[in-house]
Amino acid sequence: MKQKDYQCWESYMLSCMGDTAHDREHIYRVLYQAMELAKGEAGVDYEVLTAACLLHDIGRKEQYEDPSVCHAAAGARKAYVFLTENGYDVGFAGKVADCIRTHRYRKDAPPESLEAKLLFDADKLDAAGAIGAARTLLYHGKENEPLYSMTEDGKVSDGTKDTEPSFFREYKYKLEKLYGQFFTEKGRELAQTRRDASRRFYESLLAEAREAYRGREVLKELLDGQDPE
After folding, report:
1. In which band, very low, low, confident or very high, does the pLDDT at 191 lie, cut at 50, 70 and 90?
2. Residue of 41, 2, 21 whose CA lies nearest to 174
3. I need a surface site. Which of 53, 60, 78, 228 has the fewest CB within 10 A?
4. Segment 25-50 mean pLDDT
């Protein structure tokens, strides 16, 4: 792999990034994590893997502007056009595009090549553990979405039955379920080491939020003219 190729892919990636939860540091973490995962695998095409990692989120802008757009599909198309227009052959561009197209979890479009599986696992590892929780909070803050919602009886919801976006809902519907989705042995092992950190953060946040609301009963008694017990 030549330095000029890396710089070409990196430069285009940097021109496309902006989302705080999917910023350039996310891209670099995914790239470096993929390199680490690849060390235990035979026959890795490092050029395809590197280009795919650098370009895997270039479709985020299109999805942000139109939520019906899948950023993985949009990014795959953009990467293919960019690579072919910059002199890379269609075979290479197609392999990179396939990795990008399948890096987002979809049952009807699982990653097939080794490079696609390495990208998938590296990207999901960045959604696992403490860093995954932090990135999720960044995203929900950017979207002005709350940490939690309230149940009909006035309690802090744990997210299980939520229909509106919140951090707790994202944890129950996505973050908690990540750990059975990995394709490489090393990816699965690393994911399990991060699982407890994510779970402990969620459980602590839920407990502290619910504890804070206990004082509401005290306020209610005061407003009703009663002395708090």
Report:
1. very high
2. 21
3. 228
4. 97
**Separation of first and last alpha carbons in the chain:** 72
150, 156 Cβ separation under 8 angstroms: yes
The pTM (predicted TM-score) of the whole model is 0.88
Instruction: Show the 3-state SS of 19-65.
Output: CHHHCHHHHHHHHHHHHHHHCCCCCCCHHHHHHHHHHCCCCHHHHHH
Q: How far is CA 13 from CA 25, 56, 63, 186, in A?
A: 11, 9, 16, 27
Orientation of helix 24-38 relative to helix 3-16, angle to 10°: 140
Please report which helix (H) or strand (E) contains residue 93, including its range.
helix 90-101
pLDDT digits (tens, 9 = 90+) for 105-138: 766 789 999 999 999 999 999 999 999 999 999 8
Digit-coded pLDDT (tens) for 137-150: 988 888 889 999 99
Using an 8 Å Cβ cutoff, are 8 and 34 in contact?
no
SS3 of 105, please? coil
Query: How confident is the prediction for the chain on average, in pLDDT?
Result: 92
**Do 168 and 149 meet the contact criterion of CB atoms below 8 Å apart?**
yes
State the Cα–Cα distance between residues 29 and 217, nearest whole angstrom.
Answer: 46
Length of the chain: 229
